[in-house]
Amino acid sequence: MPSGVSFFFAKNGKDEYLTGNIRTTKDTKSAKNCFVLQVITFQRNEAMKQIEVGLGDRAYPIFVQEGLLADIGADLKERKIGKRYVIIADDRVAELYGQAVVVSLEAVGLACDLITFPRGEENKNLTTIAGLTSRLAQLGVDRKDCLIALGGGVSGDITGFVAAIYMRGIPFVQIPTTLLAQVDSSVGGKTGVDIPEGKNLVGCFYQPRAVYIDSTVLQSLPPEELLNGLAEVIKYGVIYDADFFYFLNAHREKIQALDLSVMEDVILRCCSIKAEVVEADEREADLRRILNYGHTLGHAVEAESHFTIAHGMAVAMGMVAVNKIAVAQGILMAETAGEITDLISSFGLPTTIPPELNRQQMKEFLKTDKKTVAGKPFFVLPIAIGTVIITDDVDDAIIDGALNNF
Ligand SMILES: NC(=O)c1ccc[n+]([C@@H]2O[C@H](COP(=O)([O-])OP(=O)(O)OC[C@H]3O[C@@H](n4cnc5c(N)ncnc54)[C@H](O)[C@@H]3O)[C@@H](O)[C@H]2O)c1
Ligand SMILES: [Zn+2]
Q1: In Å, how far are 154, 193, 225, 305 from 125, measured between CA atoms?
Q2: Helix count and strand count (H, E) for the chain
Q3: 28 φ, ψ to 5°?
Q4: Cα-based torsion angle of the residue sequence 348, 351, 355, 356 in order, rounded to the nearest 10 degrees
Q5: Bridge partners, residue 35, by sequence
Q6: Is the pLDDT higher at 7 or at 291?
Q7: Which ligand lies nearest to the CA atom of residue 119 in the structure?
Q8: pLDDT tens across 205-239, in order?
C-alpha cells in the first residue's frame, strides 16, 4: 500500500460495499493506520429495467427500454413534472429524434417546443447558454415548466445548467442519446460549460427529475462515438465490479454488434454503479472520485492533443497508463493489468499514448488539472479488477515510466 492513500473502496460478495479513510505514513513498518469504515447497503431490481437514484427528496428514476422515446410523453404526463416542456437538442439530434419526442408529448396533450444549438463541444459555452436562456424568456417559459435535455453529454450538460440557472432553477429531465451520456453524463447531476481557460469550469450540481434511456437511438451513433462510451463502460468494471468486467469480456461481440438486449444490460449496470456512487458521495468529496479512473492522465492526453484525441480514446490510454503506475507501485499484478489492457484493445480502443505527444507538457497539464490539489495530481489505481484506491503519492519517476512506456 503506498503512503498517503486518502481513500479506500472495496466491495464484498453480498450487495454491500465498504468505504473508508486510510492514513499511512512513509514508514510502513511504524505506521499507525487509521481506518474509518462505513458500510452502505443497496438493493436494486434490475429486472424492471428501472433504477432509482436515491437522493432523498431529489431522488429520481432512470428508465432503460427499447423504443422508450414513444412512451416518454405518457410518463411525463403521469409525473406532472411540468406545465409545458421545452426540448433542447443540438442540430443533429434534433433532426434525428426531435420530432419523435415532440410527437410523444403532443400525443398525450402536453405542450412542447423544440429549441436547438449547433452541435459540438466548442458550443458548450456561455454564449450558447445566453442564447438559450433568452429563447426561454421569449417563449414565456416559467418555473412551472420543464426542460428536456435530448442528446449527448453536451446537450445534457448545457440543458442541466440552463435548468439550474434559469429563473433560479426549473425542473429538467434527460433523454441521453450517446452511449457516453446513457452510461455516464445523464446520471449524477453534474452540469456546466467550458470557458477558454478550461473544460467544465463553470457549472453546478443540479439533478434531473428523470432519465429516459432508449437503446434504439444507439443505432444511428457513429462508431467512434460508441467507442467513446465503451471506454467509460470498461471503467465501471475495473473500478467497481469484477463480474461486470468479465461480462463485458464474454459479451464483447454482441456489444460490438449493438445487440440491444445486451446493451440494455450494460447500460443498466453502469447506471446502477453510477447511482450507487452518487448516492454515497453526490459532490465528489471521496467515493465519487473513483469515476476519474483513467481520467487524470486522459485529460492530459486530450489537452496535449489539442482535443484531437476524443475523450473515450484518451481515457482508454489513461487507464492503461495508470495501471502501469499501479504495477510499478507494487499494488497491482502485471497479469491483471494485462487483462485490462486486453479488454480495452479487444474493443478497438487505443492502449498507448501517441509518442508524438510531449510528455513534459502532459505533466504540466497534470499539475494544473482542476482536480489537482497543491500541484499533486491524484490517481485512481486498481489493486484488483473491481477494486481501486485513490492516492496522490506517486513518484515523478513512476509517472515518467508510465508515460514513456509505449
Ligand atoms: N455531466 C457529467 O457527469 C459528464 C460526464 C462525462 C462527460 N460529460 C460531458 O459530456 C460531453 C461529451 O458527451 P458526448 O460524447 O455524448 O458528446 P456530444 O453530446 O457532443 O455527442 C457527440 C456527437 O454525437 C451526435 N449524436 C448524439 N446522439 C446521437 C445519435 N443517437 N445518433 C447520431 N448522432 C448522435 C451529436 O450530435 C454530437 O455530434 C463532454 O462535454 C463532457 O464534458 C459530462
Ligand atoms: Zn469520462
Answers
A1: 10, 5, 21, 20
A2: 15, 14
A3: -65, -25
A4: 50
A5: 22
A6: 291
A7: 1
A8: 999 999 999 999 999 999 999 999 999 999 999 99
Q: Which amino acid is at 395?
A: D
The pair phi, psi for residue 94, each rounded to 5°, is -60, -40
Q: Is 198 in the pocket of ligand 1 (CB under 6 A)?
A: no
Beta 112-117 vs 172-176: how paired, if at all?
A: unpaired
Whether the per-residue pLDDT at 356 is higher than 60: the answer is yes
Q: Are 186 and 209 in contact (CB under 8 A)?
A: no
Residue with cell 429531465: 173
Partners of 190 in beta bridges? 205
Average pLDDT over residues 160-176: 98
Tell me the residue type at 150. L
Whole-number Å distance, alpha carbon 254 to ligand 1 midpoint, is 23
Q: Which ligand is nearest to the CA of 185?
A: 1
Q: Best mutation site among 124, 150, 155, 185 for ligand 1, i.e. most ligand atoms within 8 A of its Cβ?
A: 185
Confirm if 346 and 252 have CB atoms less than 8 A apart.
Answer: yes
Mind listing the domains of the chain with CATH numbers?
Answer: 7-41+224-251+281-404 (1.20.1090.10), 46-221 (3.40.50.1970)
pTM over the 0.85 mark = yes
